[in-house]
Amino acid sequence: MLLFGVEIPLAWILTAPFLAWLVHYVFFGFDFFAKQGIPTAEPVLPLVGNIWKIWKRDNLKIEVDRLQKLGNIYGTFEGKNPVYVTADPEIIKAITVKEFDNFVDRLVVIPEHQEYVRRFLFVLHGQEWKDVRNGVSPVFSSGKIKGMSRLMEECCSSLVKLTEHRAAKNQGIIDLKKLFGSYTMDVIASCAFGTKIDALDDPNNTFIVKIQKVFHAPRMTTAFFFIRLFPWITKLGVQVFPAEEVLFFANLVKDIIATRRKENQKRGDVLDVMIEEMDKEAAALKLDPTRKPVMTEEVIVSQCVVFFLAGF
C-alpha cells in the first residue's frame, strides 16, 4: 500500500494500531494519583505497577517505609488498577463502621469453579456475602465464645506443659514463633473443626503437612501475582488454593457433621453453631419453600476451612 508515496506493507498498517494500544496500556496511565494530588508509591513498573512487592519477604517493612515517606494516604497500582492505601484512623473507621454498607466487597479474584473456595466468606460479594455473614455471626456472640473458652483452655494447658518441658530441656531456648503457631492451629482445629490435632506435640501431623502445602509460598505468590494482573486467567482453571488439600479439609468437616448428626453429639464449637443455624433455616424453608437457602452444607464446610486457613 502506498502512503505519502512510500510503499508500506499491509501487515504493518494492520499491526500499528494494536502496537500503539499495547504501548499505551503498558507504559501510560500511571499518573492517576498524581492528577489528584495524592502521593504515589515508587517504583511503578510498566504493566505490573507496584504489585512486584509481593515477591519481597519484607513486605510489611515496605508498607511501613511508604507510610513514613508518603503519609497516611497514598496510591499504589496492582497492574493497571489504582489502589488507595490509608492508615488514617478516621478514614478506616468510616470505611469499616460508619460507611461499611458501601464497602462490603473485597478485591479478591478467586476462580468461581473451585468448589468450597468459591464460598469462602472473604470471597463472596453483595447480598450473598451479607446472607452468609448473618448466618455465621452467631458464632461470634459473647455467649458462644465464652462457651468455647473451655476448648481454648485445654489447648492452653498443653502449651504451658510443653513450654515448661522444652525450657528445661533446651536451656530455656524456645522457638516461640513455631510454638505459638502450633498452639494457634490447635485452638482453631478444636474450636472450628471440633477435632484435636496435637500440633504442639506432633509437627508432622497430617493437618500440618496439608496446611503447609496450601500455603506453599512460591506457588501461592505466583498464582496471586498473575491473577491480580490478568483476572481472566481464572477462566483457564488457574487455582490459588490446591484442590487436593482443600478437598481434604472439606471431607474432614463433612465426616464430622455426619458423625455428629448420627450420634447426636454436641461440642459447643463453631461447627455446632453453624449446624444449628442450618437446621433453623431448614425448618423455616418448610414454612416458606420460596426462600433461598443460605447455610447449606457447602457454605458451612467452606467457613470451617477458612477458619483453619486463617489460623495458620
From TrEMBL:
Gene3D superfamilies in the record: Cytochrome P450
Required cofactor names: heme
Gene Ontology cellular component annotations, sorted alphabetically: endoplasmic reticulum membrane
Source organism superkingdom: Eukaryota
Subcellular location: Endoplasmic reticulum membrane; Microsome membrane
Gene Ontology terms for molecular function: heme binding; iron ion binding; oxidoreductase activity, acting on paired donors, with incorporation or reduction of molecular oxygen, reduced flavin or flavoprotein as one donor, and incorporation of one atom of oxygen; steroid hydroxylase activity
The family this protein is said to belong to: Belongs to the cytochrome P450 family.
Stated name of the protein: Cytochrome P450
